[in-house]
Amino acid sequence: MNEIDEGIARRVLAVVDAGLVRGVGEPIPGQMCAAAAVCYALGLPHGDEPTCVSSAVRRLTIRLNDARWSSPQARARGLRRLAIAALGSRGVLDEIEFGSRVARLAIQTCVPTALRAVAQRHAGEQRARLLHAAELCERDPTREYALEARAAVVAAAAAADADDADAAAYVYAADAAAYVAAYYAAAAAAAAHAAAAAAYAADAADAAAAAAHAAHAADAAAYVYAADAVNVALNDAAARAAYDDALAAFAERVVHVLIDMGSPGCAFLHLTEAA
């Protein structure tokens, strides 16, 4: 396991800032995922298992990395602080606590985002139920309320005469709630469950961003993009930016969890502010 110092943090940041791609990629700056970029900076063999990063943080970072960012540069901007904050977390971070905290974070932030995106398409009872479920998740981020959120989305979808873009919003909103609820269905008694919780939380962030994007889709191309066609060229730059912003906001919230939990890499976050 590598001892983290400012020189290592600077090398990681330089590799990440070259751009990040979906999947492990190749050991060439600008052609790697976030985890592989850390391996490269540490002089490790090419792969996505940096020795200094905890399993739970690694799983979350990989899932966020592989979300539908608009470009390698947007992915790098969104994940650069998380890549630094995660350094040195292995053997230091309480993974079970981290998994629980990010699962609750996803319920409290991502699920309401998805529900409110869908609520824009409704009035009356369905809208009220969606907004009430969003408020419950924000106030008390539990599995019970995540499941209620999913039920509200399913009911809204059944009541709607939805076009393709609307249908995508419902699917993604339901997914956002289901991903984080799935963690609580398992016993959080081992680090493996913590890693799963972190992955589900990252999936919820991606699904929430997709729900918001799909709910605002103005044409078929935007729907195709939300449905995971990563190379589709869109004219709606604002929608792409909003999608990136939603993912980056979740990544930054995770950074604050790592700061609060004392991950060693957080000591070098000032490097990201100076860049």
- Strand percentage lies at under 5%
Structural class: mainly alpha
- The share of residues in helices is 55-70%
> How many strands in all?
0
Could you tell me the mean pLDDT?
84
The poorly predicted ranges are 218-235
Distance between the termini: 27 Å
Instruction: Give the SSE string.
Output: HHHHHHHHHHHH
Notes on the protein architecture:
The chain is 68% helix and 0% strand. It starts with 5 loop residues before the first helix and ends with a helix. It is an all-alpha fold and 275 residues long. α5 packs antiparallel against α6. The protein has helices at 6-17, 34-42, 55-65, 72-85, 95-119, 124-139, 143-159, 164-185, 191-215, 220-226, 237-261, 270-274.
Topology record:
Blueprint: H1 6-17, H2 34-42, H3 55-65, H4 72-85, H5 95-119, H6 124-139, H7 143-159, H8 164-185, H9 191-215, H10 220-226, H11 237-261, H12 270-274
Q: What characteristics describe this protein?
A:
single chain; mainly alpha; 275 residues
Describe the structure concisely for a colleague:
With 275 residues, this protein is mainly alpha-helical.
